[in-house]
Every structure is written in structure tokens, then in C-alpha cells.
Design a protein that fits this description.
Elements lengths: L21 E3 L2 E3 L6 E5 L6 E6 L3 H17 L7 H17 L1 H12 L3 H22 L7 E3 L4 E9 L2 E5 L5 H15 L2 E5 L6 H13 L6 E3 L4 H9 L6 E5 L2 H13 L5 E4 L5 E4 L5 H13 L11 E5 H16 L19 H16 L3 E4 L3 E2 L5 E2 L2 E4 L6 H4 L6 E7 L2 H9 L3 E2 L1 E5 L3 H10 L4 E4 L14 E2 L2 E2 L4 H6 L2 E9 L6
Bound molecules: adenosine-5'-diphosphate.
Adenosine-5'-diphosphate (ADP) binds next to α7 and α8.
Length: 499
């Protein structure tokens, strides 16, 4: 076993699994049905732990607890600064338990240990602190109306929030949604993805330790069509914030329409273009494409899965990319020398492999990778396709795995047309030194974020969220807080009241 020496924890040390049950009204409980499901180690396919399988009845209990905490509890009534203090305490607790949380996250999701420590678990605290600072700065406007009236607006917590999160960034997504909801004064029912329930349950325990009142944060582990759907269609859930596939996003919106018309915010799939012009620094361009496609084994909603190269840089880029991939290591994500871990589960693994098959059958050329690897677990070689045509399935559909498609273009106009030739509108990247080209591109691409001479750069203060079939509503930044607030106008006579 590779230790890191000095008596410190071995890289490969496994975390203890402490929390496996639903968290409702401040306590851990079994599912009403008594059912459990297994969460799997994607490195081996072995069972990590049995987790309570929440269903409609458990969601009902959680919503009831959240409702009671919202309607009669102190969370939504206390001073914002008090909520902020508790959130700061929670941030400290997350950081105190960072090592254990990191290992849980890596084990459950197949993520790289070194990256998860700094990026995934590392940013949970900063997200909490960002929104803790916002909790006492929620205020409205005062307006003079026509006639002898005035109004002021209140920004009130919207009520019980349903937060449905995916498996690719379980910890980041948990606080991306929970932190602004807490700051706003909402109470909530969180449903982590069935593939990755471990850190969410651990966080639930920490909310209690931090002093978040019972019933404010409830966590229901379980499956989408049962537990998730019960949240989306619940008459007493006041809003839903969802991150996941476009397909399920549509179901969430339908469930809202059929039930109580709760507002929904959807952060969905993408097929984001990375457009590299002839004048780009080729090393930088390769870096951005590799990171944009293979970071987190391509399980990234903003992945740069359509790489468009201007004709003059194409060959140099391709050569450097092939060189670069020679030193790329796929393997156990706990090993610090590894670049890429396993896909999250068997279903995703098979799905990605079937897209790779499609690519081959449609006539694209495999430049690197193209097959599974490893003796067990859900590992796939980082795959680069060339000779990709715009109408191939691999150029149009979200693959959500380590698959990069290279395509060519000639002019700026063509680049704009190709970038926008998609149903999605989540992200885009542009690599050029020419300011005129940069400005034209950044203003013409219909997407929620355009990264210019960088890619995948995110920050708690920078809004993230798409257009078109990538959804609507923003996660991160102050826009994220707005989703959890309802604006109310209070109108009063000014002077010389007609009444
Ligand atoms: P992916 O396809 O990437 O696995 P999903 O969109 O299926 O992503 O899952 C994202 C989250 O949505 C998960 O927590 C999942 O359990 C949940 N989910 C799946 N189906 C539904 C549904 N019908 N209603 C509500 N939530 C769902």
C-alpha cells in the first residue's frame, strides 16, 4: 500500500460510513417502508453501504417537518445575521471534517482524492461563507407610486424548497443549493442522487451540530422516479431547484405544472463548444480542451464536448493533444498520480461506451482511447474522435464521459453558427488573442457562460446556469439567492389619503 509517509493517513485509507439513514426533523430515521438500496464503489463495483430508500411517504414526513419549521419555527424569522452565524459555524465544521468528507466523496463518486480535497470539499466552506454574508443583506425597495401612494417591497423566503441534486459534484451541489436557501430563510428537503448519497447525509449531521434548527434541512436519500418525483409534485413544496439531465428537468417542470405550479429552476445538460482560433497558443488550447473534457472523467455539465479548431491550427493541436494524452493515467482515484478515475456507476459506464460505439459506427475516427480499461470497475480510456460531422450523434448529444470531438471551421461567421447549432446553451469557450474576434464571439454565443482564453473557471460569486434546453435560473452568485426569495409589494397611502 502506498502511504504518504510520516505517519500521516495513507492515500488509500477508507472512510468510515457513519450516516446511512434519512435525516428528517433533526434526526436520522429508517425509511417508512424499511427499504434500503446499495451505494457502489465505482472502482470495483462492490457495495459500499446500504442506504435508506426514501419514498413518497418519507418525502411527506420531510415536507411536513420543513413546513412546520418554516411556518412556526424561528429560522425564517431570526435576524439574517443570526442565520449567517450558524452558517459560518457550519462552514467551520465542514472544514474540520474535510478529510473524512473528501474520502467519502471520492469513494462514492470515483473522484480524484487530491482534486476533491481542494475543489469539491474545499469550496463547500467558501460557498457557505459567501451566502452567510448575504443573509443580513436581503432588502427591498421603496417606491413612490402614481397618485398619493407609496410602496415598499419585501423579499421574503419563498417557503419550503425542494433541492434535487446530481451525482457528479455531490458536495458542491449540496451547498450550491442549500447555502442560498439557508441564507434566504427557507426550509428544505434535499434529495441527493442515488449514486452518491454519502456526503449529503454527513452534511445533514453537521447542520445539526452547527445549530441549524430541526426541520430546516431534511435529507431524503432514494431514487428519482419515487423520492425525487414526490418532491417535484408535492403540493406543499414551494419551489424546486434541480440540477441534472434535460430529460428529468422536463419531468420536474411537468410535475410542477400538474401540482401547485411551484417555480422551478433547472440546471440541465449541455453540449458546449470550445472554439480555438488560428492565433491561439496551442499548448494552452490543448490544456483547455483536455481539462474541459476529461476533468472529473468528463462527468461535467459544462464539458467542452465540441472542440472546433480553425483550419490553420488543427494539425499542430492534434499532434500536441496525442502527445499530451500519452502521459495521462487512468486508475484508482485515491492514487495521487492518477488523472482520471472510474465513471460513477455501471449505467453511466455503459452509456458512455455505447456513445463511443455510435461514434465509430457513424464513421468518426478514434484518435486516442476508445475502449474500457482496467480489470474491474467502471474505467474508460479518455477518447478523442476526429473526422466528426456536425450531424453525428456524438456531436449533438450530451455524453457525460471522457469523450472529446474535434471539428474544423474556417471563418468567424462559421464558428458562431456552429457554436449556436445546438439545442443546448450552457457554456462555451473561445481561444484567441484577437480582441475583435473575442468580442464578436462572446456576444454572439447563446450560452450562460463564455470562457475567453480559459475554461471551467468557476467562483461562488459568478452566476452559472444555461439557456435553451440547458434550463433556466442561476446557481451561484447573488442571482442564486433570488430564487429562494419572493418579492412582495406593500402599498400604503402617502398623504392626503383618499381614504
Ligand atoms: P443523470 O441522468 O445525470 O443521472 P438525472 O437527471 O437522472 O441525472 O438525476 C439527477 C437527480 O434527479 C438525481 O437526484 C435523481 O435521482 C433525480 N431524478 C431522477 N428522475 C427524477 C424524477 N422523475 N423526478 C425527480 N427527480 C428525479
Amino acid at each position: 500500500e502506498n502511504g504518504n509517509g510520516g505517519g500521516a493517513v495513507s492515500f488509500f485509507a477508507m472512510p468510515e460510513i457513519r450516516y446511512t439513514r434519512l435525516f428528517i426533523d433533526g434526526g436520522f430515521v429508517d425509511a417508512v417502508s424499511g427499504k434500503t438500496f446499495e451505494t457502489i464503489d465505482p472502482r470495483t463495483g462492490d457495495v459500499i453501504a446500504s442506504i435508506a430508500e426514501g419514498d413518497k411517504e418519507d418525502v411527506d414526513l420531510a415536507v411536513r417537518a420543513a413546513r412546520k419549521a418554516f411556518d412556526h419555527g424561528k429560522w425564517s424569522r431570526m435576524a439574517g445575521s443570526e442565520r449567517g452565524k450558524i452558517m459560518l459555524k457550519l462552514a467551520d465544521l465542514v472544514e474540520q471534517h474535510a478529510e473524512e468528507l473528501t474520502r467519502l466523496e471520492c469513494l462514492d463518486a470515483g473522484k480524484l482524492l487530491t482534486v476533491t480535497r481542494t475543489v469539491d470539499i474545499g469550496t463547500c466552506g467558501s460557498t457557505l461563507r459567501y451566502f452567510a454574508g448575504a443573509a443580513d443583506k436581503i432588502h427591498g425597495e421603496t417606491l413612490k407610486m402614481s397618485g398619493q401612494f407609496q410602496a415598499h417591497t419585501l423579499r421574503e423566503p419563498v417557503g419550503v424548497a425542494g433541492l434535487i441534486i446530481p451525482w457528479n459534484f455531490p458536495a458542491i451541489m449540496f451547498f450550491t443549493k442549500v447555502a442560498p436557501a439557508l441564507a434566504a430563510g427557507c426550509t428544505m428537503v434535499v434529495k441527493p442522487a442515488e449514486q452518491t448519497p454519502l456526503t449529503a447525509l454527513y452534511f445533514a449531521h453537521l447542520t445539526k451540530q452547527a445549530g441549524v434548527p430541526d426541520g430546516v434541512v431534511n435529507v431524503i436519500t432514494g431514487f428519482g422516479p419515487t423520492a425525487g418525483a414526490a418532491i417535484a409534485s408535492h403540493m406543499d413544496v414551494d419551489m424546486v431547484s434541480f440540477t441534472g439531465s434535460t430529460e428529468v428537468g422536463r419531468l420536474i417542470m411537468e410535475a410542477s405544472a400538474r401540482s401547485n405550479l411551484k417555480p422551478v429552476s433547472l440546471e440541465l445538460g449541455g453540449k458546449s463548444p470550445l472554439i480555438i482560433f488560428d492565433d491561439a497558443d496551442v499548448d494552452m488550447a490543448v490544456d483547455l480542451a483536455v481539462n474541459g473534457n476529461f476533468f472529473n472523467k468528463g462527468e461535467v455539465c459544462v464539458a467542452a464536448s465540441r472542440v472546433y479548431l480553425q483550419e490553420g491550427i488543427y494539425e499542430r493541436f492534434e499532434k500536441k493533444l496525442v502527445d499530451r494524452m500519452k502521459s495521462w493515467v487512468v486508475g484508482d482515484p485515491f492514487d495521487p498520480h492518477v488523472n482520471q478515475g472510474p465513471q460513477v456507476d455501471k449505467a453511466q459506464y455503459e452509456r458512455v461506451l455505447s456513445y463511443i460505439d455510435h461514434g465509430k459506427r457513424e464513421g468518426a475516427t478514434v484518435l486516442t482511447g476508445g475502449k474500457p480499461c482496467g480489470l474491474k470497475g467502471y474505467y474508460i480510456e479518455p477518447t478523442v474522435f476526429t473526422d466528426v460531422k456536425d450531424d453525428m450523434i456524438i456531436a449533438k448529444e450530451e455524453i457525460f464521459g471522457p469523450v472529446m470531438c474535434l471539428m474544423k471551421f474556417r471563418t468567424v461567421e462559421e464558428a458562431i453558427a456552429k457554436a449556436n447549432d445546438t439545442r443546448y446553451g450552457l457554456a462555451a469557450g473561445v481561444v484567441t488573442k484577437d480582441m475583435d474576434v473575442a468580442n464578436r464571439m462572446t456576444r454572439s454565443i447563446r450560452a450562460g457562460v463564455v470562457w475567453l482564453n480559459c475554461y471551467l473557471v468557476m467562483d461562488g460569486d459568478c452566476p452559472l446556469g444555461g439557456r435553451k434546453m440547458s434550463g433556466f435560473g442561476k446557481d451561484a452568485g447573488m442571482h442564486a439567492l433570488d430564487k429562494f426569495l419572493a418579492v412582495k409589494a406593500v402599498v400604503t397611502p402617502l398623504y392626503d389619503s383618499p381614504w
